[in-house]
Hints:
By secondary structure, this protein is mainly alpha-helical. Among the domains are: 82 residues, Serine Threonine Protein Phosphatase 5, Tetratricopeptide repeat (Alpha Horseshoe); 103 residues, Serine Threonine Protein Phosphatase 5, Tetratricopeptide repeat (Alpha Horseshoe), CATH 1.25.40.10; 83 residues, Serine Threonine Protein Phosphatase 5, Tetratricopeptide repeat (Alpha Horseshoe), CATH 1.25.40. It is built from 28 helices and no strands. 40% of the residues are buried.
Amino acid sequence: MxxxxxxxxxxxxxxxxxxxxxxxFNTFYNAEEHYRIAEEIRIQSLGSSLPxxxxxxxxxxxxxxxxxLSDYSDSDYVENAILLKGKSHFFRREYDxxxxxxxxxxxxDDIFFLNETKYWLALCKWKDLKSQPAINDLKNLLxxxxxxxxxxxxxxxxxxxxxxxxxxxxxxxxxxxxxETSKDRFTREQIYFQIAELSYDKEIYEQxxxxxxxxxxxxxxxxxxxxxxxxxxxxxxxxxxxxQSKNRIERLLLNEDFSSIKSDLRLExxxxxxxxxxxxxxxENLDRIAQDYPNTKVAIEAYYILSKLYxxxxxxxxxxxxxxxxxxxxxxxxxxxxxLISNKRESVSKLIELDMALKKxxxxxxxxxxxxxxxxxxxxxxxxxxxxxxxxYITNNAQESPIxxxxxxxxxxxxxxxxxxxxxxxxxxxxxxxxxxxxxKFIIKDQNLKASHRPSEMLLExxxxxxxxxxxSLEVYRDILNTDSSxxxxxxxxxxxxxxxxxxxxxxxxxxxxxxxxxxxxxxxxQGKLAERRLxxxxxx
Length: 541
């Protein structure tokens, strides 16, 4: 028989074991709870930067996981703690620490942990700018696993990598496979959002509408719900279904859940009016919305649109355009529209200066001033149609001016870009009247690339697209860098991309690529100096 003394010892040991088990269970439970809270915040904030509280909660999850590993290294929760720690580091963008955690799971006897570490290590490779090795690892894992949940995550990740690499066909293929296999609501929401965005960028608008609606059916993120509703409104506008677009805007304006995007909704209404040619109404309401929502992205965009409207007929007014540019730059908010404006302010200021000189000069020889004004309007600001007036004054009234051939060639280039048949008239004039000129040689050798192939013209195209289709605009900016690495256009494109990833997406890893490109290739340029300052603030060596 067990003595009373031994019985007490056994009971004490059992209690001790129980308490120890409770201790490491509670510690891991706390780690899981912090991670769960962080994930909820991250999911709710999809479409914006990761909130500070989420970063803090991931940090607490790491802290509690480390306690499990240090104090309860023989417990059953070790591998779970390592995985939790690795994922928390990953979402904090601490990829080296995440990688170290996942590597320590590579010797696990559990197939679940082996597959998870393969998946997350592949994601770390992707974030380390090794996209092809990441793709290879993910495809190998895809072939090895029977888990539909893991398969759908892999398809989603492959889709995102292919999207980043501008391989839209492969992205579509893998995202659609993910949509077919996923049973997880959150994963489905992510997949449908990517399909919607890709469809929107490729101007497959009906498919975009269908996918955005599926996002709404699956999403628990209020940010993603708001973003998708805005995209549905924009898509209806692009399809010309003004009634649907307006009805949705009016309905959402009455819904308190969408009060945070009220300014965006009002701006969409103004864009509809602009599309319908109601310019005076739009000007009045753009100014009003900017004043109603100061120091916001909407205010900056409203002032940006106003500045553009005053650079186009019938509102051509350089002074007012400059005024609204300055108002936009005063706003205490980050926006890529500020970058667009900063690239144009000097040109508008020069137009004001030239316009004043023109008025002072009267009827004295003014061809050179008019030519320079036309040149700035057309090739710096992208207002081709209004620039024609300046060049045509020269060709109609100053045939003896030394600037006449340049004006004629400018008109040829503009009509060529506009695919206007008048291109032939000016081409023949140059070839017949100035056969030995550089202009004629340029035409004869067919060196006059189409606008879509010229960095400066590509830049204008990218800028004009930004408010209509940001993804297509970004694609053109990237194409500029692939086409050219030496001109001012490439500097502007690189800085725009860096700023976008930095402030709009909070994707510092991608931003650094473009900032570093500028710092290495064009350190003395305005954009290069801005990039170097930002790299210093990001503590990039």
